Amino acid sequence: MTGSTALPLVFDAPRRGMPPRHLADLSVAERADAVAALGERPFRAKQLSNHYFSRLTTDPHAMTDIPATARERLVGALLPPLLTEVRAVSCDGGSTRKTLWRAHDGTLLESVLMRYPDRATLCISSQAGCGMACPFCATGQGGLERNLSTAEIVDQVRAAAAVLRDGLMPDSDGTPTPGRLSNIVFMGMGEPLANYNRVLAAVRRITDPAPAGLGISQRSVTVSTVGLAPAIRKLADERMQVRLAVSLHTPDDELRDELVPVNNRWPVAEVLRAARYYADTTGRRVSIEYALIRDVNDQPWRADLLAELLREHLGRLAHVNVIPLNPTPGSKWDASPKPVEREFVRRVNAGGITCTVRDTRGQEIAAACGQLAAEGS
Prior knowledge:
Keywords: 4Fe-4S, Cytoplasm, Disulfide bond, Iron, Iron-sulfur, Metal-binding, Methyltransferase, rRNA processing, S-adenosyl-L-methionine, Transferase, tRNA processing. The chain has helices at residues 28-37, 44-54, 68-78, 138-142, 150-165, 196-207, 229-237, 253-259, 268-282, 300-313, 338-350, 371-375; strands spanning 83-91, 96-103, 108-115, 120-123, 127-129, 144-147, 183-186, 221-225, 243-247, 286-292, 318-324, 354-357.
């Protein structure tokens, strides 16, 4: 498979349960065509888009610029209900909010909204479940149910933007004040690049200027992957400015075959070559995600090897995010002790690669991907 540009069909999720067509699935031109097919004048598409993407509403009663008779028809056909909130749980003084959603077919998925003094970040899901089978990940333990539609991905973002706009999350001093969603990370449930076309379309809806989309900067969007090398190269060729995050978790193929089974298909060196192609093509640094697991991948020699490989393949274009593992109930995997974590970070930095520890939130609300969905409603 080395050098192949074909996407991995083995990871395609079944199409069962996909939701009906939604405005967010469609390009601007397609929206106008859809509205015209309903017997309405094409400019109604822009009005509908303005309500969804700018005013963040799907309530037909709020769309007073559209005649009532047309309103019900347009909303019914192009803004069908996608996600129903099952429950939302908060911690960190209310500045972290995890939401469990139920799709129209009963599928469960999650998103996590985190408010900081200088930004608000939403972690979104691209699949219900995940087929990558990483043994330390709660989502991977549950397997893959299906891909999410473009609109199901985008609707997670719209809902979070509305929560912040309406002042439903406190700011850094604990006061509920209106805020603005600034950053999106595709690091929730699923492997984004295994749902490539819908994720790409979702990124465009998220970043297109309003009312075509939500108007969030491409540079504020991060797409993560466990290392689907051909899809990384394909994403680079889109010439977008989103950041790529590669979940490496260990620098050696022997252990990575166990921790990230897709490594059997695209080993470490091939993934890093694809990451370098992405960095060279886009001009953006690549984040290397490394979940630190006690006595598994936290040895000093692995820190040294990680720095060596990243110097060889990416150099200054790499930034390592060490992630203290958020263990799942009953799992044999646990987070590394803090002294071990500090030494690992020190050695990677000493090896010439910038390395920091990611801020972790929400352990008391099962904020690791997949935990809330695994608990059900």
